[in-house]
Amino acid sequence: MRLIKLHIRNYRSIVDSGDTRIEPLQAFVGENNAGKSNLLYALQAFLTSGTGGVEESAFFDTNNPIIIRATFGKLTSIERKRLRPYLLGDKLIIEKQIRLQGDRKSGKIKPNAEYHGYIAKPKEWWLSVEEVINHDGQRPKWEQVASQHGILDYVKDESGKVTKSSYEAGIRRILLEREDIEFEEPELGQTQALGLQPVLLESLPSFHLLPAITDYSDEIDRRSSSTNFRRLMADLADRILRFDPRFQEIEKALKTVTALLNVPKAGEQREEGQERLTILKNVEEKLKEVIARLMPSVCSVCLEVGIEPTREIFSRGVSIWVDDGKLTEVVMKGHGLQRCVVFGLLQAMILNQRGQLISTPESHTDKIEKDERAIILAIEEPELYIHPQMQRLIYRVLKDFATTDQVIYTTHSPMFIDLSSYEALGVIRKDSLETGTRVCQCDYGVLDEESERKKIPISLQFQFRKKPNVFCKKGDSCRG
Fold this sequence. Notes:
Blueprint (H helix, E strand, L loop, with lengths): L1 E10 L2 E3 L3 E2 L3 E6 L5 H11 L19 E8 L3 H6 L4 E2 L2 E12 L6 E11 L9 H8 L5 H7 L3 H4 L8 H14 L9 E2 L7 H8 L2 E5 L17 H13 L6 H15 L16 H17 L15 H7 L4 E3 L3 E3 L5 H20 L20 E6 L7 H14 L4 E6 L13 E5 L8 E5 L7 H5 L23 E2 L1
Parallel strand pairs: 4-14, 4-15, 10-13, 13-14
Antiparallel strand pairs: 1-2, 1-3, 1-5, 5-7, 6-7, 7-8, 8-9, 11-12, 15-16, 16-17
């Protein structure tokens, strides 16, 4: 699956971007403050659950919703099968609307998000939970309906019962596995597709954004678990370390520490040597005496010490030290090295997601849960703090990555522009506050021959003219 078109309205400086074509390796160039980064952050908001971090300040006009519409194509056969009810032809078109609404309890204005899309209902009523309710009333006999239509084995839960939720889960499985299901013509949903969001977020590309940070310490902030560094560290513990035979030693040690510091849970059996430290019992009794003098109703006090699991330890407690002649933590290095480290971590995380980061023993190969989701890598100014020679090297890495997944980036550097691939270049302009940020792109076929592409003067690469045909031959048109 790849993102092939993006349309944004009312987000930050973007009043209406128009339909923006997105290529596998997509570059956006433009003057400072034209709104290049806003395209990346709007895409992040779209591919993030909930409101995607959008706040009131992100609305160009607070009286209207933010609307982000994304069109996906190049679906694999598995993706087409899984998303069959939501496809319009061979494309998946999804719209996320974010509105400002008043909270009844607090009275504050908060953003609220909804997904909308094309939905084709199965022709058979019993293949839709909503249609079963319409057919049999608010309290359908789910097991009876399933039995009548021969789908009982699909819709039972672990206990063998059939509930609304288990029926819905079973229907999803039927729609995925069976080829004989017929659908009505798809229609654009006018209300939020409540059953759409979980399926969508599991199927849409995985999104990784490398912002134009100025300090590596932003990435390793221990208060955050969502930065590239923290996500990679969590993955290392959760998906890689457990393949080491000695990983169990870590698990056993954490279990022992937990036992030494905490009271056994009801029915918990502990091994010899894992009895709780006696001194903690004494501390609790003293605390109880002191507190009971102030509050006589207090009968006991119990201390509970939380021990983080391995995943959390690696997510929050790891720092990186680099020896470049002097072994120090990365936060003590220059911005250029910091930027390279974060970029390297992002690449490592992507390799890990592809199952290519480490060589896994054959005995564990079947235990790896391969993530087949496509990846969108978004980078804000990849040239930041990077020497020009290394910029070209990074560009080649991005180009290679785009052969299997997708890269979208903003840049001011000619090292990241290949004008012979003009169709993958978007020029961002903001002619006025009223019109906001717009994207100018050339249509396919402006230069058909390879020889024509090679003749484009390098000097034209950053001539940001007001004319829409800045990169086109005379007589050809350029949208924007």
